[in-house]
Amino acid sequence: MIRNVLRDERIDTHESMAGALSRHGIDVSQSTLSKDLRELSVVRVPQADGGFRYSLSDGVQHVDRGVLERELRDYVTEVDRAGNIIVIKTLSGHAQAVCEAVDRMAWPEVMGTLAGENTIFVISATPTQSQGLSVRMENLTGLSAGKDS
Q1: What fold characterizes domain 65-141?
Q2: Average pLDDT over residues 95-119
Q3: 2-56 architecture in CATH?
Q4: Taking the model in full, what pTM does it have?
């Protein structure tokens, strides 16, 4: 059903996808929907109007580094670091997209990420890796990453 919905409608959030599925008689939890979207290789793609929409992928991860780096430059407003954690602040509503960009970059320093509305936590295994990631973020965004708090 998710494939059918994506073919027929412009879906840009988990909430709109859950609503579309509900209209088809399917109630789904947030965690189940996230898992299903991942398993179907559904990706968020940027639109000409500046928004995003979910799209079916061909199953192959095509990482366009330019697009991913633009996500970081356009929406990241602050980067700070404490130990092995990087805290990234974004424009409101853009944390999920930036977090996805960080995940898709597949940087070796990144163990995992967690995003809210405008804040992302990026976890590295060690403070040294976190520091390297801070430098990487500085270079991409032009922002000066904070030092250990």
Answers
A1: Gyrase A; domain 2 (3.30.1360)
A2: 89
A3: Orthogonal Bundle (1.10)
A4: 0.58
